[in-house]
Amino acid sequence: MATEALVDQKVEQFLTFELAGEAYGIEILKVQEIRGWEPVREIPNTPDYIKGALNLRGEIVPIVDLRERFGMEKMEYSPVTVVIVLCVEGSQGSNVVGIVADGVSDVLDITIAEIKDSPKLGSKIDTRYMRGMHVGKNHMVMLLDTDKLLDSEEFEGIAG
Predict the structure, then answer these.
(1) Is the dihedral of CA 85, 41, 78, 136 positive or negative?
(2) For the segment 52-85, what is each residue's pLDDT rounded down to a tens digit?
(3) What is the C-alpha to C-alpha distance for residues 40 and 55, in angstroms, rounded to an integer?
(4) What pLDDT score was predicted for residue 154?
(5) Helices and strands: H and E segment counts in the chain
(6) Domain 12-155 carries which CATH code?
(7) Does residue 92 contact residue 156 with C-beta atoms inside 8 Å?
(8) C-alpha span between 90 and 82 (Å, rounded)
(9) Alpha carbon of 38 to those of 81, 87, 92, 156: distances in Å?
(10) Domain locations along the chain
(11) SS3 state at 8
């Protein structure tokens, strides 16, 4: 029982960012860097949410627009639009993938006990990418599981 209490008090850090006015969070340990938006090389025959690829110090990095991935309204990229470069784990090993966000917000320290389960919204609502929810003082943050969200099998043949 004491071991379970220690696990519940373990603190993880999450980088929070905005999409359409809502707060999302990803594990800070997955983040390699945060870059301003820059044009990318389009790749034919890819889903609309894959904006293209970026040459990042010799590594080809697919760029995913999370607004489009989540079926949200498209928005023009602005000077505050960012690309968060992540290292994700999948069945094929690790991959580097960039996600487009409206802007970054903060880094939160969250204990495991503070992460609430994803809401059960029925079989028609896809919550498989959600790790859980964090209810802060001012707002709720949807915590994403980047390894599921950015499954490396989707990017096979795109990332070099």
Answers:
(1) negative
(2) 999 999 999 999 999 998 888 888 999 899 999 9
(3) 8
(4) 55
(5) 3, 11
(6) 2.40.50.180
(7) yes
(8) 24
(9) 9, 20, 28, 23
(10) 12-155
(11) helix
